Amino acid sequence: MTLAASKDRRILQVSDLHLSATRAYYQDNWEMVLEWIEAKQPDFVVVSGDVALSDPDLWEDLAFARRQLERITVPWRAIPGNHDIGDNVVSGSMSKRVNADRRQRWLDIFGLDYWREDQGSWTLIGVNTQILNSQGLAAEGEQAQWLVKTLQDVPDDRPIGLFVHKPLFMDHPSETVVQASCLELEAREALIAPFAGKSLRLVACGHKHQYRSFGLDGVIHLWAPSTGAVNHPPDVKMWGLREVGFLDIRLGDQGIRQRLVGSDFLFRHESYVRILEHGSILKSPAQAAP
Ligand SMILES: [Fe+2]
Ligand SMILES: [Fe+2]
User: Fold this and answer.
1) Ligand 2 centroid to residue 50 C-alpha, Å
2) How far is the centre of ligand 1, averaged over its atoms, from the C-alpha of 72 (Å)?
3) Cβ atoms of 268 and 243 closer than 8 Å
4) What is the pLDDT of residues 110-141, one digit of tens each?
5) What strands lie across the sheet with 9-14, from one edge to the other?
6) pTM of the predicted protein model
7) DSSP character string of 23-77
8) What share of the chain is helix, strand, coil (3-state, %, to 5)?
9) Of 158, 144, 263, 147, which is closest to residue 202 (Cα–Cα)?
10) 121 CA from centroid of ligand 1 (Å)
11) What's the N-to-C CA distance of the chain in angstroms?
12) Alpha-carbon radius of gyration of the chain
């Protein structure tokens, strides 16, 4: 299979930036990512959540992250992660869960949390996975209605790439037990149901701070690593590659090409070392952004 190069779109997926104005532990990597974008000029950048360091209520970090995204010199869109608007109501592990106020803060600072972007022969859709199975948030229903309506306008044979923060599943789309903070079954099924009869070809997530790529039933699943740091000590079992970096994705008429970029030149910062030393990221010493 040969991709028609002239029709390809080059999409960059950056994820889990974990930026902070006062604890800028990963700012060095972000500067290198920006340099790479400036040099390569991809067609579009998707930022798949966790732009803020840790606390979704730290307005300063969210505002700082927004200013950092504005430094991207090509078109971009972002979706929120658990560290930006709080964790999922039912299955989240963080004490701070998503609510209307936290989601509104995202809208105020970053704009829309779900979107459609057409690139070449592809349609890209970004969705806020943090509000799925929210047990009553109005935004969940609004997003679901928007998704149904949006997909009605996408021709059945037009390839679609779906961008989410959390992985849909670990081992199988039908798994009922939430593993390693993937989406729970109810959230997953509600998200995917509107894609029935459509040409969903790519599901790309962040959140795990690992790189993984596999195909299942005609869909390529990608886990973008963090641009900032890996999580957990090296002896913890990982499903993907314990590396930092970002994804260079080519979408063409014939298919998908992708590669991990940056694991050979970004610093593989280790969040667990800092947590061992200081108890938590937010108790770690201040480090100003340059
Ligand atoms: Fe993250
Ligand atoms: Fe996350």
Assistant:
1) 5
2) 20
3) yes
4) 999 999 999 999 999 999 999 999 999 999 99
5) 76-78, 44-47, 9-14, 246-251, 256-261
6) 0.97
7) B-TTHHHHHHHHHHHHHH--SEEEE-S--BSS-TT-HHHHHHHHHHHTT-SS-EE
8) 30, 25, 50
9) 158
10) 30
11) 46
12) 18
Residues around the ion ligand 2 (C-beta < 5 A):
50, 81-82, 207
Calculate how far, in angstroms, residue 228's C-alpha sits from the geometric centre of ligand 1. 9
Query: pLDDT per residue over 254-263, tens digit each?
Result: 799 999 999 9
pLDDT band at 4 (very low <50, low <70, confident <90, very high): very low
Task: Please enumerate, as own/partner, the contacts of 2-6 that have beta carbons within 8 Å and a separation of 24 or more.
Answer: 2/254, 3/250, 3/252, 3/253, 3/254, 3/255, 3/257, 4/252, 4/253, 4/254, 5/252
Q: How confident is the model at residue 1 (pLDDT cuts 50, 70, 90)?
A: very low
Q: How many residues does the chain have?
A: 290
**Model confidence at 6, in pLDDT bands (50, 70, 90)?**
low
CA 152–ligand 1 middle distance (angstroms):
32
Q: Which ligand is nearest to the CA of 87?
A: 2
Residue 199 burial by CB count (10 A; 0-12/13-18/19+): exposed, middle or buried?
middle
Q: Which residues pair with 202 in a beta bridge?
A: 161, 220
Q: Mind listing the domains of the chain with CATH numbers?
A: 7-283 (3.60.21.10)
